[in-house]
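Both lines are given unchanged directly below:

***
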Amino acid sequence: MGLLAGAAIAALSVSAASAQEAVSEVDELIVTATRRDTTVQTTPLAITALGETALENMGATGLQDITSMVPSLKIGGGSDGGGRITLRGIQASGEATVGLYYDETPLTGPSDTSQNSGGRSQDGNLFDVERIEVLRGPQGTLYGSGSMGGTVRVIFNKADTREFSGAVDVMGSAMEEGEASYYAKGVVNVPLIEDKLGARLVLYEEQRGGFIDNTRYDAEDINDRITTGGRVMVTALPLDNVSWHGMFMRQKTDAPGGGSTWYPLLGEKEYSTDRYVIPINRDELTLYSSDLEWDVGFADIAWAAAYYEWDQVNASDYTYTMLRNSTSVANCTNWFKLSLGVPTTSCNSQQLAQFTAFALSQTPTTLYKPAWLHTFNSELRISSKGDSKLNWTLGAFIEKREDYVDSTLAVVDSNTGVIGVPPTIFFHRDITTETDQTALFGDVSYELIDGLTFNVGLRQFKYDKTTYGQTDMPNWVSGSLVEPWRSSSADAEGWLEKYSVNYQFNPDIMLYATAAEGFRPGGANNTPNLEPELVPYGPDAVWNYELGVKTAWFDRRLTLNAALYQIDWDNIQTSAQTLSGCCSFIVNAGKARIRGVEFEYMARPMAGLSISGGLTFSEPELLEDQINPNIRDSTSLGDKGDQIPDISKFSASTSVDYVWPVTDAFDGMLRLDYSYIGKSYSHFRPTNTYYEKQGDFGVVNMRTGLEGPDWGAYVFVRNVFDIYGAYSVSSSAGSEQLVNSTLPRTVGVNLRKSF
């Protein structure tokens, strides 16, 4: 949601000794990115880890809130979040380019009508989270398909079998140009059988007020949203060497006014839209997971299994497309010939006027798409133990995924723009996609001499994907005709490789070099009236070559990390449009290269003061013209040298956190955050009619308050200078410069108490 909220659970002391402890807390944060316990500074890959205290201090409530603190991390949807996750500029339509994990469970979104399952990500609430690990660069050997750009891991706090504890956290805020917002969150941990069984209950409700007005219907603040959810965590320790963690999670987000997009070109006032339809978005996730760990002496065995159901409803304005096609002679001809039974080879002016009147009678129009996804996945791993020169991990993975989407068109109330429930539809098609994936993988590290370690990873993968569906109600206006049930399949198998070497010069300096491969599955389009040669599309893949250094200075009061990388991307999956403009589909076209450098720093120059941040420079460009001989309209494709859309060449962030004593009982705190998003563009070709500039803005957030060992009271300001910044800008005929922007200045208070 982007609101600064949350609270620090433990107060920071201001003594020099405790300042050094704080340094150690950051540097020694334990992560499991390599499937074994390591620290951030001793993990030979580009990784950012944010612990619970860091998340609370920055007021993070969703993944969008952490993007300013992680080099090259971007999440589509702007202020709404929940869009495609991108790392190091690896962004394209199709399956996910970055893997998202809740504990040990990989989450993939529904395929939608355009097989764009990576276009949506689950934006779980970050209350009571132990840590977040962001692994940059391909993680294909250990984490599989969908991790070609990297992996984001959200690790929740587990139930404790020993101590009763809990916390409450509340927030209220006011937004300029909009409504008030609030949240209330709570957690309680109960030992059921001491040292054997414990349970943890997390509940939360968060509402963000709307701030966008629809001037066509004189409707104010239409884009409010409410998220409710909870988790039940169970820990069982039946034997000294066996542990089990179970989780039930449910989260629902309801946005009856749709996302936070508006039209600056209207000129009437900021944050306004004149769209014909007031859209809606609903998102609901139900997740069951089981993680079993067994210490067998020489190795640890881990078995993770999960099942989740993900339901969505997305409804948007389709009126402009209907208006654009209302004078189409070809569609008019089909309507007379196929619908009315009037033989004609081309509509005359009188017939065209009749068709136009028919088309306008179907407006205002919503594209209403309910969808669901059911997924089961499981992974079995065995990993070596100890500090020997040889360390290894072996594993197997299986996933079975089925998703379904209804694509419908319906007329909405012309007086209010409100969508009826259920809507009265005049076009319908449905698509089902079934995906089966299996993999065997291994990762081996060997310390050849003191400090010098070689690592090799391999993954043997196989997938089968089948897409089937039908169009049983035609849309004469857009030219989508009836198509009978049909199915198409795609499959592939192969190997992913990773090679790495690192040298630990001393406890404070490490150098590493990596060559790693990542991939995404191909698939089959199920698009109305699509030419047969465009139905299948193949997988795409990347090779990442990286040189990195991790350093600590001045008794670890300063850490400086850097990574230099080049990514070669082959057979890119990209989105194209049907000639009628009705539908999107995926094709393979071209090669790209991304060269970049990342810097991260953390400094604690004096007791109570910490300064951290990062910089990213990149050059994301096509290496050749994007060409697919089967596509006649190539406006969505790019030419050699074009910058990859939606990816900026430069971004930067910094934060300053200061804690000082007020009395013996409590401290004062002040935190300032600044993040800059460089400019990017909405399409490859600058000559594209709808080529739009995005980004190129910076935002300042502030948080201050008082905190004791088990309480905190804060005042915060989000977007202090009320900067208007465009996360994304999209244009089409009749819909120019639709913007998703920063939230207006927001001022609020936050209280928390732990026990």
